[in-house]
Amino acid sequence: MAKLVIEFDWERDPKGYRLVEDSRSTRVVRNGKGRAPKDFEHCRPLSSTDLLFRVFVNIATTPAGVWEFVRRYGPLTRDGWDSNKGDDVRLVISNAEHMRQLLRYFSGNEKRPHLAVSRHQATQSSSLEAQVIWDPATMVPRWELRPRTLLDALWLQFGQALTRGGRISQCQHCGNWFEAGRNTGRRLDAKFCSDEHRTSFNSLKRSREK
Q: Into how many domains does the chain fold?
């Protein structure tokens, strides 16, 4: 199956973000107040690192982690662009935990996955625009997907990783998630995200056994 191309252009506040807590919620709110295009900077978060959803599940576990993710990659929802609203931290953390539960299930570390709206729905749904375009390099038609928010993009990227025939495993050394199997450079039964971490793990194991 050909890889679906995810095109995602986003904006973030160059003045940064802060955590705001009240009696009802904790939110990540942008520091800037302006709403004109000049008040935002363009970014392409999916291009900044390999498989951004893995960064998301690893750090979006606390309010401080959500703030750090938004600071690096921009707001996760459209509310994050509104200086009077901001991203709801509880909503973001629940999405990250849903992804982690599915990763544990697909890696064999959890017997029952967290179910979404129905028992046939594995992940959260994503809002996106889809069209067939001519590939500019080959002039062959291909799908192009454009998510509407960063959170939609993360779920779409996550779903693509789950369904393209490889396996997502958790590194026994660092605990981070990595892809293994076809076209990943790692064997399907790999237990480590890199050869360096395999060597470090075995070295630590030998030192403990002495």
A: 2
